[in-house]
Records
---
Amino acid sequence: MSTQVSTKNGPSLGELLEFARTAAADTSLLTRLDTLPDERTWISLEGPGGSEGWLIGWPPGAETGWHDHGGSRGAFATAAGTLHESSIPIPLPTAGWRSLELLEDLDRELDLPAGSGRGFGPHHVHQVVNPSGEEHAVSVHVYYPPLPLVRRYSRRGRVLGLETVELPGQW
């Protein structure tokens, strides 16, 4: 997988998405991933320009829960199956709050079948789910800078609550 990399500020969002799509189409890479019937599996990947990547297997019904990427920008592409993403397209404060009431009609929903992908900026809050009741999904995710932390949220209707902050090694 060869890609041109912007070195001043790390890889661009387009370069991250290109990496995710190229890796998701690499059948020799996909065969390295073991899948389990009821838990996600993953393999760490070296992404372009110092980014970190992950090849992830999603059993039927698996989900991430609501989270962000600690200020990293990123991209992901579906290699097999379909993933569904729910996202909130607004920057959230990073400290000093425990609960926020979101505006109505703020949510965005996106289905990502095999071969599709998306990029996102540093303030992206989302939840990703394998909606299938029978089929595994596989995807490639890449982040720059490498994830400094992940904030996890609860979601009850329009109320988003900050639950935990995880540091590398906790996920």
---
Amino acid sequence: MSDLDRAAAAIRDGDLVVYPTETVYGLGADALDPAAVERVYETKVRDRSNPISLAVPDVDAATSYVRPTERERAFMERFLPGPVTVLCGRREVVPDVLTAGSDRVGVRVPDHDLALTLLERVEPITATSANVSGRPSARRVEDVDEEVKDAASAVLDGGKTGGVESTVVDVASGELHRLGALGDEIETWLADH
């Protein structure tokens, strides 16, 4: 069984997986399984009021979990896959624990071959950095916090990542919740559309 097969099986079983993205290493679990999402919060020692995004293999797949407006869809088509997290109205299938009770959820389509291959096998998965909250994000597998590695059933090594975290954008309000990669391009697009 390949590392990818092991990782996909682990996610299907409700376990955690460390996986690379073009930004930083992520901590993946079945984003629709409340118990798996709880394990992500526990492992990261993350405040339950801080929502977690979900990752999918492409924009079309995202529509199974969110209801993007026309403008949000146009934005997603322009910037995904890429280092961007787009907030959209969630569908009922997305559990409250993932969104901290919000009616919106962050959507991520990582621009990384290994992450996309994993997502083609199992989706959606949580899209949050593979670190204990408050500690630096990991750009290499060796930098992932030991507590996170110990909690994960599989670790996919994709080499060194880009290091700049994704920009989190609410297209509906035009608000950037976190300025990261492509920030200037995103601000220009929002102003022009």
---
Amino acid sequence: MVRRARNVVRGSRPARSRVPVGRIRTAGQPSAVRAGVRVHRALRVAAAYAWRLLVVGALVFVAFTALQRLQLVAVAVFVGLVLTALLRPPADLFARRMPRALAVVVAMVGGLLLFLGLLALVGDSVAREASSLGSEFRGGLGQIERWLERRPFHLSHAAASDLQGKVGTFLSTHRSVLISRALSGASQVVQVATGLALAVFCSVFFIHSGEGMWRWVRDQLPSRARSPWDRAGQAAWHAFAGYTRGIIIVAASNAALVGIALVILRVPLALPLTLLEFFATFIPLVGSPIAMAVATVVALAGRGPLTAALVLVLIVVIGQIEGHLLHPLVMSWAVKLHPVVIAVSVISGTIVAGVIGAVVAVPVISVAWSVIRELRSDAPGRQ
């Protein structure tokens, strides 16, 4: 420490220290910095974000592994939320005139009767056209065989008969394998029925007392976090309900286009195929082409190759409308996400978890983004 000079005039500037500048700047700093090695600020920020992202990625991996183990339960809860989004508005409407519990029962029974009515309508249509469809199917196979015998295939009648014989031999040889696969499919049907029962059970309580269940979860949080997380939960539910409304609009529009086209082309079983298209649209990107492939097979058997080719063209046109125009635009309006984000999330979900991942990708991304956006709006400095 440098002593003050004795003859210093008051009000004048004090004498500066004689300590070298380099020592002042390097005092208290790490030896690496004193030696001249400095870490760029961008690299320090990137490293800080990197280890946080690694922690988040590990948590996501653990959660995804747990969901894979509990796939049936997770899918059942998801279906229960979908049923809740569909039946909650009529239940709230009925609750204005009757007790809440009775309104929930009326909404659930009404939805079940509507679903069973659609199944009965499909069964009646199939029963009425079954006999004619059998003869049309055999005639369609004959047309296909004659079509293959002409240009440009020039398939002989003996080769076609030999192909039919090989198919019959394959079925008889691999009968045990087919039966075992059918039995495994039956066990999967039991699992699906169990998951559906769990979904209905959960939806009943979600419709009746969903707010009370959410309030209980909210009250377990710290006092300062209750208000922002309450708004985040409401935003998440609005996003999920918007997704449900959007996918129903897309499915209904797609099924209407398909139904009109099948009726104009006089394809057998137009009504069941239309309902199949409606439910298949809930699986983005892949559901509608699969349903239209079934319609193509029916058209090929019942109406011949020309009608089947027209239905095949219809698959391409409606697939383009549904995949690149209708689905992205409606879902972007419903869940407030850009169409590119929706397309990328659907493809990523398909790669990660198959069909289930394709179905749940858009609602999961929309719910997560709505929660993040609500929490960011409540953060300090963003008011």
---
Amino acid sequence: MSDSRTALTQESRVGPPPQRANGRSRRLSAWDPEDEAAWKAGNERVARRNLIVSILSEHVGFSIWSMWSVLVLFMSPRTGHAFTADQKFLLVLVPTLVGAVLRLPYSYAVTRFGGRNWTVFASILLFVPAVLTLWFVHRPGTPLWVFLLVGATAGVGGGNFASSMTNITAFYPQRLQGWALGLNAGGGNLGVAVVQLVGLLVISTAGDTHPAYVAAGYLPLIALCAVLAALFMDNIDTVRTHPRAQREAVRVGDTWWISVLYLGTFGSFIGYGFAFGIVLQSQFGASPLEAAQLTFLGPLLGSLSRPLGGRLADRWGGARVTLLTFVGMAGGTGVLLVASARDSLGLFLAGFTALFVLSGLGNGSTYKMIPAVFARKAQGEITAGGDAVEAFARARTLSGAVIAIAGAVGALGGVGINLTFRTSYSASGGGEAAFWTFLGFYALCVVVVRVVYLSADRGRAALDEESRMSAGQAGTRSHA
């Protein structure tokens, strides 16, 4: 394995940093992140510059995507929007669904139009949900269907994650992708917490009758993202669409097993982030201010724990960390059931906070499983007499395709969370039925990890492969 990886590294060309073929379009030619000489000579600075702007763009996109989790806290008879809990869950469900559906086309768009060009366009597109929200949210009596359409436009912010991750993957060498993608994803996930902090700031200073201020606050940030992307990001002419990659990936069983796991981790993070405020209002009668004061902490901790999940997976293996994560999430859900039975707000908050932190850890560890799984497959091809360079190149291509597919499926988990809550509160007025459903799904994920990735015959090979990869990455980083 180590000899194959060394051969793959030595295959890289040694030469000067890539030049822009067209200054106006900021297009990089001959980009090779695995070329260590070029990386040290200037490519690292180029990649870092693109990463910084990408994080900001994805962060604002996530904030717009999750904005309705805050806006529903304002909706009451005082603002002329007397929606029920059932209707509020529907309002946060729609942007979640649209964002999930857009992830695959957004991922493709980067390879078709270029990372810089698409980031500029995607940033400008965020004006649509922000302006529409600003226009309609302060108009009393606006019907639910109008808000559902406006909320659907906020789904474009959810697509930004896929395009941003696909773009940054192309800028960084394999040995640094875990770090770069962790920062990129974590910075984006923080948008969920930040928009809730913005909502808290508005409610605590202007009161709970001015939801339009939340949308207005993001208008200059959207403009800033578009300008920075136009000025400081680059397109890479060597990034090409692999039309067969996703078709091949959907025929691989690991694609769907990993997607199920990401459905449980990221789906829980985004679903709970969107629904938590409504749950507090419905189950404990929290006021808008009380709900806003309590909702931001969980998404904040979950965002910060995502890079930690990747680092733990580097050390102990992604499958093992993911297994422990789901065991912990099952335990956290049990705490919610006890808290609901005792009507204990403190215990309820503790259980939900644990779920946010654990889902963040699981996001990082599950994503780290993807390259390890396909590297193991590549090693099997080499053992059978295949070419090492071709095998690992194919593994990287399939890994990228699975990241896009799993990201889209994972976001659909947020839809499932909100649908389950909506059904539970509509039927019984409480969340107990939803919590039992989540507990059953986490138990299923435990079984999947245990049987598929940690079984006696397959698990040892997977963990050994991850250990070798982690050791190689750690050695490379120590010499960087």
